[in-house]
């Protein structure tokens, strides 16, 4: 991983979903502030983990990076090309390099298409190869994700959840991309299968030099696969650091609370440590709190936290945080 060459650069990315009222004349009466002015880089060959509670904006971030959702404001650069300003035709070409593995392997595969057709679809859309060459490529991809190439004419319902997710991985790899958004690719799978999929992703990264944004809420799995980890709360990134720095020295109170909930396999250490229990519910993204969005649940909040939004700053080398009280 080279810190000099960010593959993806995100600047003040914002995505608000409008709330409208009325049947014929629709009037906007509010907005769901799913992602609100976040900035980060993803370097070539690395895995950036993105964690946080359900509904905090992780999946929206991943989809907005790929322009599946058009951002409300902000910029996303891929190799210094601003994806937010390219034409639809150019964006279609860019999709050869940026792909996504969806969360639900049961919903992301068309039940009326064979596995061969599903994996070959990106090749057909981009007019790559003849029918025979595409079939050969599909068989190669199935072998690459440890599935039998003779399964090419089977349908998704004939596979288990783990096998379906492997088909999703094969489809994402069909166009030989540089960057893949892994949108909670293991959350719908059994624990025994999760490790197999994560190991597959790691092997493919090593073989093809892939770059991942790995979205998840399983903190132990994120620690295993990621080089750096970003923590998200209510549409904002509150902390971003190298993996070991974040897990051994979390600075933000929200990160500390998240990590205190991760079970430790040693019963003696588990008994000694203190759990941080956050009070109250996560506020609504339709009407988020003023100042720091975490102040309504923060155990150390002071008056300034409700009045001013904290600045995104580098507290330690490579360790970024948005908090007034952490020095």
Uncertain residue segments = none
CATH class call:
Alpha Beta
Q: Strands across the major sheet, in which order?
A: 6-7-8-3-9-10-12-11
The biggest sheet amounts to: 8 strands, mixed
CATH topology: Rossmann fold
CATH architecture: 3-Layer(aba) Sandwich
Kindly report how far apart the N and C termini lie. Answer: 29 Å
H-E string: EEEHEEHEHHHEHEHEEHHHHEE
Radius of gyration: 21 Å
* Beta-strand share of residues: 15-25%
| Count of spatially separate domains | 1
Number of strands: 12
Question: Quick check: average pLDDT?
Answer: 90
Number of H/I helices = 11
Q: What characteristic shape results from the CA principal axes? A: globular
Classified in CATH, the superfamily is: P-loop containing nucleotide triphosphate hydrolases
Oligomeric description of these chains: single chain
What structural class do the secondary elements suggest?
Answer: alpha/beta
Can you give the helix content as a percent range? Answer: 25-40%
């Amino acid at each position: 991983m080279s810190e000099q060459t960010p593959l993806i650069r995100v600047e003040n990315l914002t995505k608000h979903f409008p709330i409208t009222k009325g049947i014929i004349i629709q009037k906007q009466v509010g907005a769901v502030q799913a992602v609100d002015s976040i900035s980060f880089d993803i370097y070539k060959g690395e895995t950036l983990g993105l964690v946080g509670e359900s509904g905090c904006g992780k999946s929206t971030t991943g989809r907005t990076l790929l322009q599946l959702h058009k951002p409300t404001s902000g910029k996303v650069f891929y190799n210094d090309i601003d994806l937010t300003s390219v034409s639809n035709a150019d964006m279609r070409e860019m999709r050869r390099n940026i792909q996504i593995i969806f969360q639900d392997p049961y919903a992301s595969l068309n039940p009326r298409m064979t596995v061969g057709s599903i994996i070959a679809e990106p090749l057909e859309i981009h007019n790559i190869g003849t029918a025979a060459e595409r079939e050969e490529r599909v068989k190669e991809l199935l072998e690459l994700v440890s599935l039998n190439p003779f399964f090419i004419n089977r349908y998704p319902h004939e596979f288990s959840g783990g096998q379906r997710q492997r088909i999703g991985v094969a489809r994402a790899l069909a166009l030989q991309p540089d960057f893949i958004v892994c949108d909670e690719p293991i959350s719908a799978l059994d624990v025994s299968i999760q490790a197999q999929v994560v190991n597959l992703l790691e092997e493919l990264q090593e073989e093809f030099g892939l770059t991942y944004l790995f979205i998840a809420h399983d903190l132990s799995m994120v620690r295993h696969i990621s080089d750096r980890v970003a923590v998200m709360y209510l549409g904002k990134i509150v902390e971003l650091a190298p993996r070991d720095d974040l897990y051994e020295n979390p600075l933000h109170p929200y990160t500390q609370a998240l990590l205190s909930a991760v079970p430790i396999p040693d019963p003696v250490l588990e008994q000694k440590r203190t759990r941080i229990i956050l009070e109250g519910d996560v506020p609504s993204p339709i009407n988020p709190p003023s100042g720091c969005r975490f102040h309504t649940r923060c155990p150390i909040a002071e008056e300034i936290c409700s009045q001013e939004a904290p600045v995104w700053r580098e507290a330690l080398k490579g360790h970024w945080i948005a908090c007034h009280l952490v020095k």
